[in-house]
Design a protein that fits this description.
alpha/beta, four-stranded mixed beta sheet, 18 helices
Length: about 550
């Protein structure tokens, strides 16, 4: 049987005019600004509407593997499932980065019959938000270098510049560069580098801001360099904030699109989850909560990364409390965590499943026992999964007091998410959580890192390298110790070693660098080899993308 590709399914969908979708989300014509027929920006005034907030459902997942889990697909399919059982629902998602779209991962608009559309627009330029963020980032970089060129009255040490330029593309060639060459008139020569736009602090600031005023205050606090006597220099010191905000003011409005089944979808912002906090914007989440009785959102990568940051950073800063959590798993991925080769996943193997399932159970236990939130496991069923394998997962989760529901949203859309939708409604109505953070803000920086490593990752402790110890001491002296921690680590393991699959124990996480994102309001803790500028693979996805003479795009997935 020949399956349609994601883009073919999306292109067959008869989209509804965005005005109709807006009405469904209780938005008037005055609340939206049209970007063509099927996209709109939503005015920030909707945050002040006198509507009660709906229930907030977080979708997260097991530790990712090459076998795939389907978190975004489940998020969209669950929202459509809730709509099918008669609920007033919205969905809130991140915008895709062009880096993965043209690299390995492909787009991030869902898959199969659970997608947001127009899929091509969302995966490419969309409404220009990421271009605006990149422009604001690079304006700040230009003003910083210009200040040094024009006399350096702030006494900036060029060897202590921390602000890098960015581009929304995988480009390893730009990781480390020397710029300012060509003589005195062309700048001050120095070592420099680029990050991908989704790793820029402006992206994190953009996604955590509550309003234009809050955005300006956060932008002003961004530290771009240090002086010769180690005093921080900020974007506010460079008088860059007004112009940066001017570039970002329209981008700050959330984007409204639709699922294949016409459910309103707020798609806005997209920080990486293994570098930044991996969630769509606070503004989009709050708008979605105002406009629906149920809002389904997701956080990037596994629950140890995206969900931890969603709960410990985003919810804490924005005053949000999830009503239920969905943890997505597949039999195939769990067998990979049990040591099975990717080529053998189609064969029943309860032994490999038994070895791999502790990964799922640790994520479930964290949500239930560390964060004290009601949760359900959604198993994305593949045709090769056997009843014995499914029954094994159901039995193991039941031992933790958590139900397991099969999801077939990739193949069936909202219909395949109805059972999951009913269980989510039951959790929201019958099981009250006692939402708790994994650490308190008044703990030391070291204690906060250790709390996440021990409570969430299941590790034995942390090893802070001498350079990182100095950085922690400096940040504490500068008054930043009371901020939450945003741990940057591999997405492929609970540990900082990507080869340790399943649920490893007795490991130590090595802290290599600690830096402040003062605008975002969190401390970034770098472990392992984390790249802020990815590279393209040997055969990039970009090689398969084409456009015919009618403007129809193919090869985008």
């Amino acid at each position: 049987m020949a399956y349609l590709s994601d883009i073919e399914i999306a292109q067959q969908c008869k989209m509804r005019p965005i005005g109709e979708i807006a009405k469904k989300a209780h938005l008037s014509e005055d609340d939206i600004e049209l970007y063509g027929k099927y996209k709109a920006k939503v005015d920030l005034s909707v945050l002040k509407k006198e509507r009660a907030n709906g229930k907030l459902i977080l979708v997260t997942a097991i530790t990712p593997t090459p076998a795939g889990e389907g978190k975004t697909t489940t998020t969209i399919g669950l929202a459509d499932g809730l709509a099918r059982i008669g609920k007033d629902v919205t969905v809130a998602l991140r915008e895709p980065s062009l880096g993965p779209v043209f690299g390995v991962k492909g787009g991030a608009a869902g898959g199969g019959y659970a997608q947001v559309v127009p899929m091509e627009d969302i995966n490419l330029h969309f409404t220009g938000d990421f271009h605006a963020i990149g422009a604001a980032n690079n304006l700040l970089a230009a003003m910083l270098d210009n200040h040094i060129q024009q006399g350096n009255s702030l006494n900036i040490d060029v060897k202590k510049i921390t602000w890098r330029r960015c581009v929304d593309m995988n480009d390893r060639q730009l990781r480390n560069v020397v710029d300012g060459l060509g003589g005195k008139a062309n700048g001050v020569p120095r070592e420099d580098g680029f990050d991908i736009t989704v790793a820029s602090e402006i992206m994190a600031v953009f996604c955590l801001a509550n309003s234009i005023t809050d955005l300006k205050e956060r932008l002003s606090r961004i530290i771009v360099a240090y002086t010769y006597d180690d005093k921080p220099v900020t974007a506010g010191d460079l008088n860059a904030v007004g112009a940066m905000t001017a570039l970002l003011k329209d981008a700050l409005k959330p984007n409204l699109v639709q699922t294949l089944e016409g459910t309103p979808a707020f798609v806005h912002g997209g920080p990486f989850a293994n570098i930044a906090h991996g969630c769509n914007s606070v503004i989009a989440t709050k708008a979605a909560l105002k406009m629906g009785d149920y809002t389904v959102t997701e956080a990037g990568f596994g629950a140890d990364l995206g969900a931890e940051k969603f709960l410990d950073i985003k919810c804490r800063m924005a005053g949000l409390t999830p009503d239920a959590v969905v943890i997505v798993a597949t039999v195939r991925a769990l067998k990979m965590h049990g040591g099975l080769d990717k080529k053998q996943l189609a064969t029943e193997d309860l032994g490999a499943l038994e070895k791999g399932i502790p990964n799922l159970l640790r994520h479930v236990s964290n949500i239930k026992n560390v964060y004290k939130l009601p949760c359900v496991v959604a198993v994305n069923r593949f045709p090769t999964d056997t009843d014995a394998e499914i029954d094994f997962i159901i039995a193991k989760c039941r031992e933790l007091g958590v139900n397991t529901v099969l999801s077939t949203v990739w193949a069936e859309g909202g219909k395949g998410g109805e059972a999951l939708a009913k269980e989510v409604v039951r959790l929201c109505e019958e099981e009250k959580g006692d939402f708790t953070f994994s650490y308190e803000l008044d703990s030391s920086i070291e204690d906060k890192i250790e709390a996440v490593v021990k409570k969430v990752y299941g590790g034995a402790g942390i090893n802070i390298l001498p350079n990182a110890k100095k950085q922690i001491e400096q940040l504490t002296n500068l008054g930043f110790a009371g901020k939450p921690v945003c741990i940057a680590k591999t997405q492929y393991s609970f540990s900082d070693d990507p080869t340790l699959l399943g649920a490893p124990e007795d490991f130590t996480v090595t802290v290599r660098n600690v830096k402040i994102s003062a605008g975002a309001g969190f401390i970034v803790v770098l472990t392992g080899e984390i790249l802020t500028m990815p590279g393209l693979p040997k055969v990039p996805a970009a090689e398969k993308i084409d456009v015919d003479e009618n403007g129809k795009i193919s090869g985008l997935f």
